[in-house]
Design goal:
heterotetramer, A mainly alpha (210), B mainly alpha (105), C alpha+beta (251), D mainly alpha (574), A: mainly alpha, Four Helix Bundle (Hemerythrin (Met), subunit A), 0% strand, D: 574 residues, mainly alpha, two-stranded antiparallel ribbon, 16 helices
Chain lengths: 210, 105, 251, 574
């Protein structure tokens, strides 16, 4: 409905100092904090409720710390390329934006590929989320948590990649007419992407190292 | 054009900060992995890992997500969220503080 | 008490602690009724006196309603008193002051399953046999380890027998889903949660026959999950134990 | 209506509309249909409770064979009805009606905004709601039937239940997503799109209630989201987040690794579900405040304390969840904490209710139909709130836990409470939405019959609960104390069917008034808030020129003013 103009989509609101989109994404992230908070709290509850000898460390459970470390670095790198793509856009450097955004998407995909490689490695060692999988050898609550938490995180990564791909190939047409608005969209997507990175920063030590 | 030049200069400064934060994040990742190989007692290991993770998360939130220079309304929103996050963490506590121990039956 | 009177209000109480709970329920309801009637009268009065009619106008300026502040403070104080003076002590007594061995309690293990109750008495030796989920079978609903000597004289029955005047400790276990151990006349309700053993205690004041029920939705037969509760004199209780003992082929 | 924007096709205008008003209407009609369905399920349950084992009249012959035996209900079907009645009423009926419909239609108008902040997101949240709702209802016709483990879906029962539970979880995830998107939209809209001069303390109380509700939705729902993901994993991937070790179901060890915690679900569920209770009631309170201010022809008494209480209420609602779990083996420390927070949270409710009651003093009360519902709301909600007192304390809860007293308590809050508020809202804003007034006589008939039958349903429940009758029983008459209270069951059941009949005048009124020739006045209630500042029905974009606000929301009977109402959007002389 083109003809209605809803204010504060591009220009910041005088009282809050941010655009509607930015306020919206932060409210969304607050809700995401609660989602991952609930998952994290469940992790603590289940771990505390389990006798220590039944709770494997990540390595004991067959997690591969070097792969996890590489993935952490990949995700952190994608975070800086994301912020660089936004900064390039702010400096009117469309080529830089495209390059950095492309890198972000590429790194996101790399993260997913490493993750799926990790999953297949686990499957081949008989590590599954639970019993009921024919080849499962050592199911435990830890494995269930590992697959659920990383799986949910991977879903978030996929969503972030999808948004970034849309921005890079379709959303970019907005840049010619309303560069500020487009930069705002990239910033919002970036905030989400950094949040996904931030979740991983907690997931990595929780699952792999402790 | 000069105004946008100044802005560009600003962003160049920003980029320097971003790179520094990136390096710090990389270093901290290796630190936390290295510490995990020390096989500290569980409590100490959890403390160290969570402190490092919190520092890393603060760097991401503070610089990449611009929280350090963000408007008040966002900070208030996050403060509210943090309060409820704390109540969420009461959940495991609520199951731990259970019934009083009974004499051996 | 063979024919207890049930009606539209609290059923008869046959437990020692039940009197405290009943008193609380009744006092709180008087408090609620007072508040409700007070509010009701005020509203009704306003509706009549301030109805719209020719020559009557609303007053713009807010009235000074000190009484509302006092009402709110009054409610807060009343709630604090109820909480500190009644609710907490009653709860603490039930949850922390369990009968000790010197009080000579009857200890019963209760195993809940869809949709039956099983009552497990330690028998003459006063010791429960070893039990675990790995032993559950159709012939062994209590999950007893038959190799354990302590378990040889253990009694497992489908009806709950307890003596009057002696504290009873019930250790609640569930084999499958969440149940809730409810004896309305005893003022006892306790969720039975699989993976946990939850104790609850009570002491009967009179003899009679009552019902134990399940108060947490546990599946198709939830409504049928009930058992008889027989409260007997200590002598009758001992006699019943002897009979059950004989039925096991012992002595 | 359609003349102004002829370029919009049928689909864009009625199905994929991004206009908050159309979305509000979509939400409203869908939610009313769902409410009706939820109510119908309950009427069948009432038959089974009143006349156990007898064939259900009228509908019994049409039901699936797996549901009924010669027309008489089977326990499995009863459990499905129970679980789905709760789910439909709470998540698909009242929340969408209170937040989706009233919030969407009224909030942008009352704050003078052209639309919601994110119109397309708004459309998405309606569609997510619709998909979730359809999944829920469709689950009845899947093999194994709908979810049957209660609306609380406690595992392990829900973990081992039939596939209906999986549909329930998928449906729930859509409903949660819908509420989250809606909540974000409301927060941004209310914070950013207020008209010039409309400061926070000039907001109508209804807008405040929607703001707090939106925060509750956004911050509480994720806990259930997490729990639903875990339960889905338990059911589909065979994990055992909620299954402890060594479960034996039907004599056989179940194939799960164990090590989980059934209490984890309860904590996460109630972490959402207690704020959810306030999601159900706060918008209702907001509507009641609007209607009372309008029909008493004077400002609300204690507007600011009410707002502060509202904020406090919203905040505290996150700290009381475990008062639903006193009997799960909780010790003294935790029960003391949750009893204390529960007592604290009752105080702001008392303040809001007293403010509304005191607003009647010095008024000039018009007994319009919405006002009748609003007046009835006060004592009805009062009963609901007061009966929460014994349940909030752990010791009386030992006896009352899971009895009909609990059912009576929360139904007094949501049925003659929230639903009366919804009716008040429908009668109040109907002229705004359709441009027609509703019939007065039918309205009175609807009100009085509903009031009588609502109490006929829920008052006996309180006594039944006092007699110790447990809830969720397919056939409670196996218990002696339940037999003694059976007359009460009959009263409840017949009142429920009576309540159904007394909705007929409303349904007739609702559709017949729409087709009336005669248009209602532009501001039929002589109200002061912004929604009456624009044409009826409001055009696309709501206001021809952005409105400016000069005063507080309820400037009625201002001394010296020409009329007894001084709208917010009119600058007063002097």
């Amino acid at each position: 409905m083109s003809e209605i103009v809803i204010p504060y989509q591009v220009e910041p609101h005088p009282m809050t100092g941010v655009t509607s989109g930015k306020l919206g994404i932060w409210v969304f992230l607050a809700s995401e904090v609660m989602l991952f908070g609930a998952l994290f709290s469940s992790y603590v509850l289940l771990r505390v409720g389990t006798p220590a000898e039944y709770w494997p460390s990540g390595v004991e459970a067959g997690l591969n710390v070097p792969i996890g470390t590489v993935n952490t670095i990949v995700l952190i790198t994608s975070s800086i390329t994301m912020v660089m793509s936004w900064a390039s856009l702010k400096m009117n450097n469309l080529r830089g934006f495209k390059r950095f955004m492309g890198a972000t998407i590429g790194l996101g995909l790399a993260f997913l590929m490493i993750k799926s490689f990790e999953y297949s490695l686990k499957f081949s060692h008989g590590i599954f989320p639970a019993v009921g999988w024919p080849e499962a050898t050592d199911p435990s609550v830890f494995n269930a948590l590992y697959f659920t938490l990383t799986g949910l995180h991977a879903l978030h990564v996929i969503l972030g990649i999808a948004v970034n791909v849309w921005l890079l190939f379709w959303g970019i047409s907005l840049f010619k007419s309303q560069p500020e608005r487009f930069a705002g969209r990239v910033e919002i997507s970036g905030l989400y992407w950094h949040f996904v990175d931030l979740v991983w920063i907690f997931l990595f030590p929780t699952l792999y190292l402790l | 054009m000069s105004a946008s030049d100044v802005e560009n200069e600003d962003f160049k400064q920003h980029i320097k900060v971003y790179v520094m934060v990136f390096v710090a994040l990389g270093v901290l990742t290796f630190v936390t992995v290295a510490v995990s190989y020390l096989r500290l007692p569980t409590a100490a290991a959890i403390t160290v890992a969570m402190i490092v993770a919190t520092v890393k998360a603060s760097l991401v939130a503070g610089y990449f997500m611009h929280l350090l220079s963000e408007e008040k309304v966002i900070l208030w929103l996050l403060a509210l969220c943090a309060a409820f996050f704390v109540t969420l963490m009461l959940v495991p506590l609520a199951t731990m503080v259970g019934i009083a121990p009974l004499w051996p039956l | 008490m063979d024919d207890p009177q049930y009606g539209w209000w609290l059923p008869p109480n046959v437990s020692v602690h039940g009197a405290d709970i009943d008193a609380m329920i009744i006092w709180i309801h008087w408090f609620m009724l007072a508040l409700f009637v007070g509010w009701g009268i005020f509203i009704a009065y306003c509706l009549v006196r301030f109805r719209q009619r020719p020559g009557h106008e609303a007053v713009y300026a807010p009235i000074e309603a000190r009484f509302s502040k006092w009402l709110e403070i009054g409610v807060a104080v009343a709630e604090t008193v109820i909480l500190i003076a009644f609710a907490m002590p009653v709860w603490a007594k039930l949850k922390t002051e369990f009968p000790e061995p010197k009080d000579d309690p009857v200890v019963i293990r209760v195993v809940a399953e869809q949709f039956k109750w099983l009552f497990h008495y330690p028998g003459k030796d006063g010791k429960f046999g070893r039990a675990g989920s790995e032993f559950f079978s159709d012939d062994n609903p209590a999950g007893l380890d038959f190799d354990d000597e302590d378990g040889v004289d253990d009694i497992t029955v489908r009806g709950l027998h307890i003596p009057v005047g002696r504290p009873v400790i019930v250790r609640l276990l569930s084999k499958d889903v969440i149940h809730s151990f409810k004896i309305p006349v005893m003022r006892v309700t306790q969720d039975v949660i699989p993976g946990m053993e939850i104790p609850v205690w009570f002491e009967a004041t009179t003899t009679g026959r009552f019902q134990v029920g399940c108060a947490q939705l546990c599946g198709l037969g939830h409504y049928e999950m009930k058992a008889a509760l027989v409260i007997e004199t200590p002598e009758d209780f001992e006699k019943w134990l002897d009979e059950e003992h004989k039925a096991l082929g012992l002595d | 209506m359609s003349e102004a924007h002829p370029e919009l096709g049928f689909l864009r205008k009625y199905v994929f509309s991004t206009d908050h008003k159309m979305i509000g209407i979509q939400y409203g009609l869908t939610a009313l249909v769902f409410l009706f369905i939820g109510f119908s399920l309950m009427m069948m349950m009432r038959w089974q409770l009143a006349y156990p084992g007898e064939a259900i009249p009228l509908v019994g012959g049409f039901l699936k064979n797996s549901w009924v035996d010669n027309g008489a209900m089977l326990p499995d079907f009863y459990n499905q009805l129970g679980a789905m009645h709760g789910t439909i009423m709470v998540f698909m009926g009242i929340v969408p009606l209170a937040v989706g419909a009233f919030g969407n239609y009224i909030v942008p108008l009352q704050i003078g905004a052209p639309d919601m902040a994110f119109p397309r997101l708004n459309m998405l949240s309606y569609q997510a709601f619709l998909i979730g709702g359809v999944i829920m209802l469709a689950s009845f016709f899947m093999p194994g039937g709908a979810a049957s483990s209660g609306w609380t879906s406690y595992p392990p029962l829900a973990d081992i239940a039939t596939t209906g539970q999986t549909y329930w979880l998928f449906g729930m995830i859509f409903l949660i997503a819908s509420s989250l998107l809606g909540g974000i939209n409301f927060i941004v809209t209310i914070v950013h799109l207020r008209a010039e001069g409309l400061t926070f303390f000039r907001l109508p109380f209804f807008v405040w209630s929607q703001l707090v509700t939106a925060f509750l939705l956004v911050l509480a729902f994720p806990a259930l989201q997490a729990a639903a993901i875990f339960q889905l994993m338990d059911r589909l991937a065979g994990t055992s987040f909620f299954l402890p070790s060594g479960l034996v179901v039907g004599g056989e060890q179940i194939a799960a690794v164990g090590g989980g915690s059934p209490l984890l679900w309860q904590h996460l569920f109630w972490f959402l579900a207690h704020p959810e209770v306030y999601v159900l009631i706060l918008p209702g309170m907001g509507i009641i405040a609007e209607v009372i201010a309008n029909n008493t022809r004077k400002p609300l008494w204690g507007y600011r304390p009410m707002v502060y209480s509202l904020l406090f209420l919203g905040f505290m609602s996150f700290t009381v969840w475990a008062h639903h779990m006193y009997l799960t083996g909780m010790g003294t420390t935790m029960s003391t904490f949750f009893q204390a927070t529960t007592m604290i949270i009752s105080i702001p409710s008392v303040i809001i209710l007293s403010c509304l009651v005191i607003s009647l003093w010095g008024a000039s009360i018009r007994f319009t139909v919405p006002m009748l519902f609003a007046i009835a709301f006060l004592p009805m909600f009062g009963i609901g709130g007061l009966t929460g007192l014994p349940l909030g304390l752990a010791a009386p809860d030992i006896f009352l836990h899971d009895t009909y007293y609990v059912i009576g308590h929360f139904h007094y809050v949501v049925a003659p409470g929230t639903i009366f508020a919804m009716f008040a809202g429908i009668y109040h804003w109907y002229p705004k939405v359709t441009g027609r007034s509703m019939n007065l006589r039918l309205g009175y008939a609807h009100f009085w019959l509903s009031l009588i039958f609502m109490n006929g349903i829920f008052m006996p429940m309180l006594f039944e609960g006092m007699a110790g009758v447990s809830r969720r029983m397919f056939d409670p008459t196996g218990y002696v104390h339940a037999q003694a209270a059976h007359t009460l069951t009959l009263v409840t059941s017949w009142s429920a069917w009576g309540l159904a009949v007394s909705q007929i005048p409303f349904i007739i009124n609702f559709f017949w008034s729409m087709r009336k020739e005669e248009r209602a006045e532009e501001n039929p209630w002589q109200a002061t808030t912004l929604e009456w500042a624009t044409a009826t029905p409001p055009p696309h974009g709501n206001f021809d020129a952005p409105p400016v606000v000069y005063s507080g929301p309820y400037e009625y009977s201002v001394p010296g003013a020409e009329t007894d109402f001084s709208p917010q959007y009119v600058k007063q002389e002097g």
